[in-house]
Amino acid sequence: MQHNAIVSRDEWLAARRALLLKEKEATHLRDKVNAQRLALPWVKVEEDYVFDTPKGQRKLADLFDGRSQLIIYHFMLGPDWEAGCPGCSFLCDHLDGALPHLNNHDVTLTAVSRAPLAKIEAYKRRMGWRFPWASSNGSSFNYDYHVSFTRDDLTKDKVFYNFTDIDVASAHDELPGLSSFIKDEAGNVFHTYSSYARGPEEFIGTLMILDRAPKGRNETTIMDWVRRHDEYADRAEASSCCA
Q1: Is there a smaller number of Cβ atoms within 10 Å at the N or the C end of the chain?
Q2: 55 inside domain
Q3: What is the pTM of this model?
Q4: What's residue 235's pLDDT?
Q5: Burial track 216-241 (b if 16+ CB lie within 10 A, e otherwise)
């Protein structure tokens, strides 16, 4: 257990006020980053992607489900994986409660994975989730948005991820991210934003709460303590995104 300095209430108040200035600075910086994100140019999506969903095959434009905005979470679940990535599962534990608010605000949120739909549906039942989840199996969608990599890709020194070339040793056949799209009145779809690695971390409300707890995230490496929510009783010593 860590042992912070023990001080008087007045000394604590002075330190807290100094931290408050930094917190306000971070909030204002976040506002500026959000404004810059909204000002990004758009790219028209020319590829006619098709996804398998519980409602049948649907194109990217159909995934909007009658709304003008679409956010896709690139969930790490490959065709030959036995279960979804624990980190992605941790993030997606936080989505269901947001759905009615997002939908009412003209935003559809869905997950997409390369696993076949039957495998997705089985894992979704195991986790007890309600959010939409489509399969991109058989399409180039995951590869085009740089969250899936072929065996040939992984034989090279580098792969393109998070807008740069990274060492292949840091990559898997699947990696996490999110992508945002908008559809205009004529039905044209535009890619507006993508984020990878720790970019979607603010979706994980548990981490935001832990950041206010006395011991913080209490981890040695990023999310090394995270398990699928039905596995904590097992006290597994290690987890792998490929498990």
Answers
A1: N
A2: yes
A3: 0.92
A4: 53
A5: eeeeeeebeebbbeeeeeeeeeebeb
